[in-house]
Structures are given as structure tokens and as C-alpha cells.
């Protein structure tokens, strides 16, 4: 759990505006919305940066945002999409499930909790 110095809506914008998500997440190289299913459900492709000499990881996932009594939940899991190919040099990672729980602490502070289970794919040296 982290508390960030911004209002709830600003935190949601930073987490859910995928065309510019890489500006606030230094592990991402690029992101794009592949398809908008509803206002709260999208299919997204994200390509991470190479870390520790490993090939970049890429994933395609469905992302759903829902209102909770005390904030929002953003739930994601990998999907296959016919318009999404793995970029050359990247390795497909599988997002089994991920969730962001976003709750206001005050008008100017927001608590964010992130949990994820994923398979990075490829070979990871030990």
C-alpha cells in the first residue's frame, strides 16, 4: 500500500489512461488501447523495458474498472487478440490476474494497493 499526494480522480487517470501510462510507469516502454469494449472495459497492449539484460516483456490484457463503496478496483488478466502481435525482440508475459485497489484517504491523498500474479515467459536466469 502506498499513499500518493493526489486526488482519487487524478490517481485513476494516471493508472487508466493507457496511451500515456508509460509517462508515469518507468518500467513501461509503450502502451496502447487495442479496443474499448465499454467505458470501463478495454483491451490494452503494454510493452515493458528490458531489465537486467532480459528481453522486454509484452502483454495483452483486458482491463476493467469498477466502482466500489470506498473507491475503485481495476482488474486485469491476459487475453489473446487477433490484432496484437508480440513485437520483435520481446517475450509475451501472461498476466494471470492483477488488481489495483484505489481509495481516497483525503481530498488530496489516495491510497493504492497493487497485487498481481503473472508468468514472465521466456527464460529467466537464476
TrEMBL record:
One of its GO terms (molecular function) is lipid binding. One of its GO terms (cellular component) is cytoplasm. CDD domains: START. Residues 17-126 form the START domain. InterPro entries: START-like_dom_sf, START_lipid-bd_dom, START_lipid_transfer. This is START domain-containing protein. It comes from Bicosoecida sp. CB-2014.
Amino acid at each position: 500500500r502506498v499513499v500518493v499526494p493526489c486526488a482519487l480522480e487524478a490517481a485513476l487517470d494516471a493508472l487508466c489512461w493507457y496511451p500515456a501510462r508509460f509517462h508515469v510507469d518507468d518500467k513501461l516502454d509503450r502502451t496502447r488501447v487495442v479496443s474499448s469494449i465499454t467505458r470501463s472495459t478495454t483491451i490494452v497492449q503494454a510493452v515493458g523495458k528490458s531489465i537486467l539484460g532480459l528481453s522486454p516483456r509484452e502483454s495483452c490484457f483486458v482491463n476493467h474498472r469498477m466502482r466500489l463503496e470506498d473507491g475503485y478496483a481495476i482488474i486485469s488478466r491476459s487475453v489473446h487478440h487477433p490484432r496484437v502481435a508480440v513485437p520483435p525482440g520481446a517475450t509475451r508475459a501472461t498476466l494471470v490476474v492483477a488488481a489495483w485497489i484505489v481509495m481516497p484517504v483525503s481530498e488530496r491523498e489516495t491510497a493504492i494497493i497493487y497485487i498481481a500474479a503473472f508468468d514472465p515467459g521466456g527464460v529467466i536466469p537464476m
